[in-house]
């Protein structure tokens, strides 16, 4: 567990699906965007490996909040989107 | 039991992946899952502060406390609607849904329109369900993407003072626990 509630995090702007078969639980619309860690949700076997029946190491999962207004080109609504994101998709900005 | 189920059972049990008893337990749990179970949890949370605290801390334990089987199910998280926050649940990637406590999702939950509008035009989407949030209520859209399943603990509506849990459970609909609607009397 690397991040704590309140930390600002950046979702990696990475596109593994462009490099071959991939199973990804990080929605497209969040990649490259900053959010705030709300809570730690425990360690779980990495679904990116489970989906291919590969040995899956446990990874930390976080609930991260994003201001909707920053996610969309039209500005978006006054709302937050909260999403479960695995640690290996998060960086310190 | 249809032929696919019969063959599936023969394979699963024959290869010792599960026992017949486990399979029967899982099938019974799936058959019994319905929004009525989530509604019972909500009604109890509205009348029992200790249960409400448990539900918000650990949804899986709260479901088990109501005899809802959760073994083998993803962890359940419960988010509370208050005077200042309204939660709306969606799964933009697929169709993650808290089946253990709400049963199978309504048809619109899996539609591309619902999944895309929830994170881009949520107030417009809520309007389609005739739901308008009061001024000053923060909208929190919960995109259920990974290992958890999320349900909403709606706000208890005015006009239900003194009601018992059965009366309260009867007014809680599946949409109230997804956050597209709010309970009313």
Topology of this protein?
The complex is a heterodimer of chains A (93) and B (185).
Chain A: E1 8-11, E2 34-45, H1 47-50, E3 58-67, E4 79-86, E5 90-91
Antiparallel strand pairs in A: 1-2, 1-5, 2-3, 3-4
Chain B: H1 3-14, H2 20-32, H3 35-47, H4 49-57, H5 59-65, E1 76-80, E2 85-90, H6 99-102, H7 112-118, H8 122-128, E3 138-143, E4 149-153, H9 165-169, H10 174-178
Parallel strand pairs in B: 1-4, 2-3
Helix pairs in contact in B: 3-4, 4-5
Give a summary of the structure in a few sentences.
Chain A has 93 residues and is mostly beta strands. Chain A is built from one helix and five strands; from the N terminus they run ββαβββ. By secondary structure, chain B is of the alpha/beta class.
What keyword list fits this structure?
heterodimer, A: 93 residues, SH3 type barrels, 5-stranded antiparallel beta sheet, 1 helix, B: 185 residues, alpha/beta, 2 domains, two-stranded parallel sheet, 10 helices, globular
Q: Which chain pair shows the most residues in contact?
A: A-B, 24 and 20 residues
Number of domains of chain B: 2
Q: How would you describe the shape of chain A?
A: globular
Helix content of chain B: 40-55%
Just give the CATH class of chain A.
Answer: Mainly Beta
Poorly predicted regions of chain A are none
At CATH level 3, the topology of chain A is SH3 type barrels
Total helices of chain A: the number is 1
Largest sheet of chain B: 2 strands, parallel
Shape of chain B: globular
Molecular structure report:
The complex is a heterodimer of chains A (93) and B (185). Chain A is mostly beta strands and 93 residues long. Chain A has one domain (8-87): SH3 type barrels. Chain A has one helix at residues 47-50; strands spanning 8-11, 34-45, 58-67, 79-86, 90-91. The longest helix of chain A has 4 residues, at 47-50. Chain A is globular and about 40 Å long. The relative contact order of chain A is 0.29. The model of chain A has no long low-confidence stretch (mean pLDDT 95). Chain B is α/β, with parallel strands linked by helices and 185 residues long. Chain B has two domains: 1-32; 35-178, Nitrile Hydratase, Chain A, CATH 3.90.330. Chain B has a two-stranded parallel ribbon. A two-stranded parallel ribbon of chain B has the order 2-3. The chains are: A mainly beta (93), B alpha/beta (185). The interface between A and B is medium-sized, with 24 and 20 residues. Strand 4 (79-86) of chain A pairs parallel with strand 3 of chain B, so a sheet runs across the interface.
